[in-house]
């Protein structure tokens, strides 16, 4: 008999822990609801009895950010996606962030979740998505795999949407570094119109400096690769360097979106900073810029993580 007990809005809750790191992964969207180290919450998450606010911790696929008017063409055919952000007349953040993912495997320090995206009239390709969330001495790590199960090539992009915070440090006071040498110039609908260099402008965070009163919902590209493997990272630190948090991503992610939460309401208004590693910029289904084409049977893999500092 089916249970009539109320379920959390985000579905099943899968907790993992190791070396003082703890995280909670949720069924709805297969995303990250909480992450803390030694009792300190570095993810500005949400409660088990809340509906996920502002995309917090969600997986964004098969595209991140916005598609203008929800319309795009691929392989000689035209498609029209549902307008999931009606106020801007755009399709926002993909098709997998509000669906139930399944538990594949769980251990004390890791959980693997998956979702099979069926063909949709506006996205007629079948994808198999799988994420391994794990925690350990180096922090939190997310290993993503997406396979094209269709008989034809599929357009694809990927991102995640965690909000980072340093408890007790206001957004204005956070010292931030963003490894992007260009930024996208956007219109009133936050859709890209072009790109420009950040050197010498107020959008240059290639060297750490306070966020101050900057209102950000911006995309940075031409990233500075921070390690021999080609990865990059965004960092947030307290003014006195007493605490920091680093979100790193492997070379698959060549774009960064940073959002200071000014459009959020209530207690979440400008309380934390969304740091989103992306494989492609907004509207890539239309522009083709860094859009991935997955061949039939091909698997894309990408890895990122969160690492607290002293």
Question: What does the model show?
Answer:
The protein has one helix spanning 284-287; strands at 13-18, 21-26, 32-37, 40-41, 58-60, 66-68, 71-74, 77-80, 90-92, 102-106, 110-117, 127-136, 139-148, 154-156, 159-161, 163-164, 175-177, 180-186, 192-197, 209-210, 217-223, 232-237, 244-249, 255-259, 273-278, 292-294, 299-309. It is 1% helix and 45% strand. It has a 9-stranded antiparallel beta sheet with strand order 10-11-12-13-27-23-22-17-20, with no helix packed on it. By secondary structure, the chain is mostly beta strands. It has a single domain (13-309), classed as Distorted Sandwich (Beta-galactosidase, Chain A, domain 5), CATH 2.70.98.10.
Largest sheet: 9 strands, antiparallel
Please report the number of helical segments.
Answer: 1
Number of strands: 27
**Beta fraction:** over 45%
Helix content: under 10%
Number of domains: 1
Q: What gyration radius follows from the Cα positions, in whole Å?
A: 19 Å
SSE topology:
Blueprint: E1 13-18, E2 21-26, E3 32-37, E4 40-41, E5 58-60, E6 66-68, E7 71-74, E8 77-80, E9 90-92, E10 102-106, E11 110-117, E12 127-136, E13 139-148, E14 154-156, E15 159-161, E16 163-164, E17 175-177, E18 180-186, E19 192-197, E20 209-210, E21 217-223, E22 232-237, E23 244-249, E24 255-259, E25 273-278, H1 284-287, E26 292-294, E27 299-309
Antiparallel strand pairs: 1-2, 2-3, 3-4, 5-15, 6-9, 7-8, 10-11, 11-12, 12-13, 13-27, 14-26, 16-25, 17-20, 17-22, 18-19, 18-21, 21-24, 22-23, 23-27, 24-25
